[in-house]
Design goal:
heterodimer; A: alpha/beta; Nitrile Hydratase, Chain A; two-stranded parallel ribbon; B: mainly alpha; Cyclin A, domain 1; 4 helices; 57% helix; globular
Chain lengths: 207, 99
């Protein structure tokens, strides 16, 4: 199955020879009773239902509820379940908290490990050779490409994920958000801020 | 010997921040791979090892690596043979072509 020579790894490529092959594998696995059609469909729906909105809800709750924040940092899966987000399974989750002293960034240098059970499938760039190579050596340069750079003097901590341990960033609550509702706060939390390449949106100016 | 997946700290160019909509076959590849884990047919670590052993690692797209690795593991474990996958792919291709 090798030997095709068109350029790869860029987004938007279609008509891969593997598209046909995985359909063939699906058909055989179902025929032999290794997997059922329902199990495959359930898994597709499970992943489609995961999204960064889950992470945003966890962060917003942690911002308004110090006790929840404590639980989120101590036992992420249990805290997620409180909000109806089922991240059960063998994978461990660790939430790393940004502070005025430390900014956290997550990467998986070896592959693409990501808190999928909470945030869904990782973005293309997270899986790219460039991000995986550079995030551990020059995280500030990488963050600059995403339009963010922590102030000088802030330590940047890079967390290299593994198959067994997945990280998510708890960003700092933006200034000027006093009095905002949990829902309004969640709307400020971007996917990229949960990975640490960026920070949450600033609130719209007070009218 | 350094393997192709061991990229941490290597020099590299700018990060391409464009994203593509996940295609149906990619969602299927994702689902089959994870469903096989849940069934206990294989583990995440086995899948990683299979990905890291792909000779064309750098040429394949992300979900092509997943699909190729899952196929190799299924063959390795004796659950499917390369021959029957080839044959079924051929059948599907013909069926689709006739539509």
């Amino acid at each position: 199955m090798s030997g095709h020579d068109h350029p790869h790894e860029g987004p938007g490529r279609t008509a891969s020879p593997y598209a046909l092959r995985i359909r063939a594998i699906e058909s055989l696995l179902v025929e032999k009773g290794v997997l059922t059609e329902a199990e495959i469909q359930d898994q597709i729906e499970y992943m489609d239902s995961r999204s960064p909105a889950n992470g945003a809800r966890l962060v917003a709750r942690a911002w308004v509820d110090p006790e929840f924040r404590r639980r989120l940092l101590a036992d992420t899966k249990a805290a997620a379940l409180e909000l109806g987000i089922d991240a059960s399974g063998p994978v461990e989750f660790v939430v790393v908290e940004n502070t005025p002293e430390v900014h956290n960034l997550i990467v998986c240098t070896l592959c693409s490990c990501y808190p999928r059970a909470i945030l869904g499938r990782p973005p293309d760039w997270y899986k790219s050779f460039e991000y995986r190579s550079r995030a551990v050596r020059e995280p500030r340069a990488v963050m600059r490409e995403f339009g963010h750079e922590p102030p000088e003097g802030v330590r940047v901590a890079v967390h290299d994920s593994t198959a067994d341990v997945r990280y998510m960033v708890l960003p700092m609550r933006p200034e000027g958000t006093e009095g905002m509702s949990e829902e309004e706060l969640a709307a400020l939390v971007t996917r990229d801020s949960l990975i640490g390449v960026s920070v949450p949106r600033a609130p719209a100016r007070a009218r | 010997m350094e393997r192709p997946h061991d990229l941490g700290g290597e020099p590299a160019g700018p990060v391409d921040r464009r994203e593509h909509e996940v295609e149906d076959w990619e969602r299927l590849t994702d689902a089959i791979t994870i469903a096989l884990d849940r069934k206990g047919v294989k583990t995440t670590d086995e899948h990683r090892r299979a990905i890291e052993s792909l000779p064309d690692y750098r040429e394949l797209s992300y979900y092509e690596r997943w699909a190729a690795a899952t196929e190799n593991l299924l063959v390795e474990k004796g659950l499917l043979s390369r021959k029957e996958i080839d044959a079924r792919a051929e059948e599907l291709s013909r069926a689709w072509g006739e539509r």
